[in-house]
Amino acid sequence: MALNNPYNTTLVRNETAAGAAAQLLLLVLLGTAIDLGPVGWLTGLAFAVATWAVLTRALSRSWLVSFGAANRVTLARATLVGGVTALVADSFESPPPVTVLVALTAVALLLDAVDGQVARRTGTSSSLGARFDMEVDAVLILVLSVYVATSLGPWVLLIGTMRYAFVAAARVLPWLNGQLPPSTARKTVAALQGVLLLIVGADVLPYALAFGAALLALTLLSWSFARDIRWLWRTRDSRAEVTAGAR
């Protein structure tokens, strides 16, 4: 017997396809305006395909009734991040257009403050939307850290890879998978990562100040992760008891 499910597969495919088309359009514009090289093109195309595939699969498993305005904002951010990714990849072959890179990144960071507000005001908050937003943020920070590392050194990559290292560690240490309580400090530190890396990447600071800004970003992020890991460790037993009781 078929279930009466409001999930619209065609609608979801149209939304993700529109996102992929927007990504291709942005790449064409970048290619026309700044003569994007083959590495940038291939990286941008790979980003578009990966985003489309992962998002389509996630949506098909979430059974959302509609894509939602907030997810559209996040998808627009993902498109901009794809452009930034292409520019950073291309920068290994030729000097990047810093103004364009900064503009795309700045808009992506500004939109990061929009999608959450849209979700709350429209009552369309979802675990998928929150995860989508978080993953877009993580990719942007990783890409920016790669770009900044070319001038300040490979240690900056710790900023971009810290979250992925945490996720990998959680596969080995299940207690790291616990649900963290809401934290303004965590959100503030996360937002500062993009801002500080953008300032450093804009190449407007002397080397010493740029180094200090990147080091500050790494220090704050390390503190935030250490704080959350400590909380997860201290509450692991009580969370295990609650889980066992629920079973």
TrEMBL record:
PROSITE patterns, per the entry: CDP_ALCOHOL_P_TRANSF
A GO BP entry: phospholipid biosynthetic process
Keyword Membrane appears in the UniProt entry: yes
Membrane-spanning intervals of the chain: 20-53, 139-166, 204-226
UniProt keywords, alphabetically: Membrane, Transferase, Transmembrane, Transmembrane helix
Protein name stated in the entry: CDP-alcohol phosphatidyltransferase
Top-level division of the source organism's lineage: Bacteria
Similarity comment text for this entry: Belongs to the CDP-alcohol phosphatidyltransferase class-I family.
InterPro entries the record matches: CDP-OH_P_trans (IPR000462), CDP-OH_PTrfase_TM_dom (IPR043130), CDP_ALCOHOL_P_TRANSF_CS (IPR048254)
GO function term, MF aspect, one: phosphotransferase activity, for other substituted phosphate groups
GO cellular component: membrane
